[in-house]
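Task card 7
Instruction: Convert sequence to structure tokens.
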Amino acid sequence: MSDVMKRASDYMKRGAKLTSETCPVCGYMLLEMEGRKVCPQCDKEVIVAKTREEYVEASSRIVLTRLREVLLENISNLTGEGPVPLENEEALDLLDRYVSILEKLEGLLSDKRTPHVRGK
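Output:
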């Protein structure tokens, strides 16, 4: 059995259902599980938007979520060896900037209104 068929089978065992939609990247069938669509070929979630506004909102949320993940990874790397020594002002300043940006991101992600990009 191919890797794709195995992933599709695994999704279906967990309750996913076959849809009539195809992946916009590879053209493979999409599965729907818990209100989310996934492509077993790309092994990624696919967001289907009916309007440009829906697309921009979903894209904005994805970008903000990815940025949050990068910030958390950077914070983890910075503090990976335990507490940052108080003498290390450069590391503390960087940590302060990361936390400040993270707080702003958390606010944006918790707000139901995601930033929109205006079309020209």
